[in-house]
Amino acid sequence: MSLEVKIPAVGESITEVTIAKWLKNDGDIVERDELLCELESDKATFELNAESAGKIKILVKEGETVEIGAVICSIDTDSAAPAKEEKKEEKSAPAKEATSTGETIEMHVPTVGESINEVTISSWVKKDGEIVQLDEVIAEIESDKATFELTAEATGKLQVIAKEGETLEIGALICKIEVMEGAVAKEEAKSPAPAAAPATSSSSSYAAGHASPAAAKLMAEKGLSASDVKATGVDGRITKEDAMKAEKSAAPKADAGKPAAPSYAAPQIGGGVSRGQRREKMTSLRKTISRRLVSVKNETAMLTTFNEVNMAPVMELRKKYKDSFKEKYEVGLGFMSFFTKAVTMALKEWPAVNAQIDGEEIVYNDYADISIAVSTPKGLVVPVIRNAEALSFDQIEKEIVRLALKARDGKLSIDEMQGGTFTLTNGGIFGSMLSTPIINAPQAAILGMHNIVERAVVENGQVVVRPIMYVALSYDHRIIDGRESVSFLVRVKQLLEDPSRLLLGV
Which CATH architecture has domain 99-181? Predict the structure, then answer.
């Protein structure tokens, strides 16, 4: 049977994507949930996973732009690799028994940043008593700024000291490893799992419980958590099919409370309906975000001013040159680079919007370090594009993609998230029509972008339809007056509605 692989929906305002890179060649045998290719939109880069095992036939070449829902390849499920019997035979070979060397290594919480003095054990990738290899990931630790991986400092048996969810200071004892010889061979000598069980699943895998991009989107839409879904993908990964099955299994529960016949009597709740609650400890990142948001609300005189932007000129310019731009610079031309350039030019004219309060002084910045708000499974992070005013469109787009990928993978450094002077946030990718963004302290202002909707507007006495975006500027009224805030936003509007101004500086 041939299974068609189509471009999934990756965002409400995204209508097309580009095949950035094929990770498999035409005719290769792929495993279910294995990465096939990287897709690139005007906002970010996404991964596409195989929905079944088999032989892949590539229908769309690298660099081609296709619409959402288009078929880009097919998988012949009848050609799945017979594979793994030989490997099982190899693993059953006699092995050297692991022996203890008598040495025990204590592992302590490492220093992960200059301003970080405590971390939380987010999850143990390896269990207590398991054999671990040198440099193998054994746990994830989470600070108030980012998530880090903890790797084994020796090969041997793991002894877990700190529990999941526990908060430890830097330098605290987190686990011990009983150093062993022959540990690798012992692990290989273990009998294989029963044939009925999925060969690729593993509860101790780092990927266990993690959802593929398509599955994560479906779970978010249906309000499902990882605990609600039975994972069948490679190394315990949650696939799109797993999320769909979980959605179907949950449907009968919603209907269980319906009365059998029309009646005004109190409904009789049938079996399977739960009124249970689930409690989860707030992560260090979430606690820090909460604390900072409340602090901004209480300590700033925050106001918001609004305007609307006719996006037709930018959309026409982008449509005209996006292919040649992509061919020359090997990166897509998105809306964020236009907004970033417009903002940096407006900040030069209205420096108070680019300033911040330090005690009883106002600090004015001659440069524009633009923070880009990025939503991740762990929470909101705000990486910084340094000296954005000096960067070209392609440099801005490449930096946005680089920072977005690192944010998604939890690999952002502390330096990459500190020191911004102004923030851009795009709620439009989630369908937001209008909002009042909250200031990213100690900055004095933030610009909120929203979705683009065709609306009726009046031009030269005629009612016409134009793609309109509402923009919102939240600002600290202590250092930014109404004249400056409104004039700044009007300037951004002028630059976007006539993009040639961005090149001419007028």
Answer: Beta Barrel (2.40)
Cβ-contact 367, 384 below 8 angstroms? no
Domain 1-81: give its CATH architecture. Beta Barrel (2.40)
Q: How many helices (H) and strands (E) does the chain have?
A: 10, 27
Task: Answer whether 60's CB lies under 8 Å from 7's CB.
Answer: no
Q: How far apart are CA 335 and CA 16, in angstroms?
A: 14
How far apart CA 325 and CA 497 sit, in angstroms, is 20
Residue with tokens 């690192």: 406
- DSSP characters for 89-119? HHHTS--PPPEEEEEEEEEEPPP--TT--EE
The CATH code of domain 301-504 reads 3.30.559.10
Residue 164 or residue 339, greater confidence: 339
Query: 181 forms bridges with which residues in the sheet?
Result: 99
Query: Which residues are paired to 453 by β-bridges?
Result: 468
- Tokens 């979705």 locate to 451
3-state helix, strand, coil in the chain (%, to 5): 30, 30, 40
Q: What is the CATH number of domain 197-251?
A: 4.10.320.10
Nearest-angstrom CA–CA distance, 239 and 207: 12
Identify which of 18, 2, 7, 8 has the alpha carbon closest to the alpha carbon of residue 71: 7
Domain assignments of the chain as residue spans, ordered by start: 1-81, 99-181, 197-251, 301-504
How does pLDDT run across 447-503, given as a tens digit for each residue? 999 999 999 999 889 999 999 999 999 999 999 999 999 999 999 999 999 998 887
Dist. CA 497–CA 491, nearest whole Å: 10
Residues with catalytic roles:
477, 481
The burial class, CB within 10 Å (0-12 / 13-18 / 19+), for 108 is: middle
Do 197-251 and 301-504 share a fold?
no
User: In the chain, what's the furthest Cα-to-Cα distance?
Assistant: 88
Residues in contact with 4: Cβ distance below 8 Å, sequence separation at least 6, in sequence order:
71, 74
> Looking at residue 443, what DSSP letter applies?
B
Model confidence over 300-356: pLDDT tens digits?
889 999 999 999 999 999 999 989 999 999 999 989 999 999 999 999 999 999 999
Q: What is the DSSP pairing of strand 118-124 with strand 137-142?
A: antiparallel
- Which phi and psi angles does 427 have, rounded to 5°? -75, -10
